[in-house]
Automatic annotation (TrEMBL):
It is found in: Mitochondrion inner membrane. GO terms for cellular component: mitochondrial inner membrane. Accessory subunit of the mitochondrial membrane respiratory chain NADH dehydrogenase (Complex I), that is believed to be not involved in catalysis. Complex I functions in the transfer of electrons from NADH to the respiratory chain. The immediate electron acceptor for the enzyme is believed to be ubiquinone. The keyword Zinc does not apply. It comes from Aegilops tauschii subsp. strangulata (Goatgrass). This is NADH dehydrogenase [ubiquinone] 1 beta subcomplex subunit 9. Mammalian complex I is composed of 45 different subunits.
């Protein structure tokens, strides 16, 4: 029973890491895009990269893929990201 619970907990953690990684990568893609049509193309390519590994079942392989993707995302971060400032009137 604890093995199943451990598996499910690890799997849930991996799903959360992937979700956050995808969001960060998508926001960074928007920072690099000069025009919206370029962003759509880059976002589609990014989604394809994530979808390519969707059916991987080995937990150790998934962890390695996540770590590699996080390292790649850190290297890809924009040095001057776009920051939305909300002004109150």
């Amino acid at each position: 029973m604890s093995t199943t619970a451990g598996y499910l907990a690890r799997r849930a953690g991996q799903k959360e890491r992937v979700r956050l990684l995808y969001r960060r990568a998508l926001k960074d893609t928007l920072n690099w895009a000069v025009h919206r049509h370029l962003f759509y193309q880059d976002a589609s390519e990014l989604r394809d990269k994530f979808e390519a590994n969707r059916n991987v079942e080995n937990l150790d392989v998934i962890d390695r893929l996540i770590e590699d993707a996080e390292a790649q995302q850190r290297n890809f971060q924009h040095p001057d990201p776009y920051i939305v400032v909300l002004l109150r009137c």
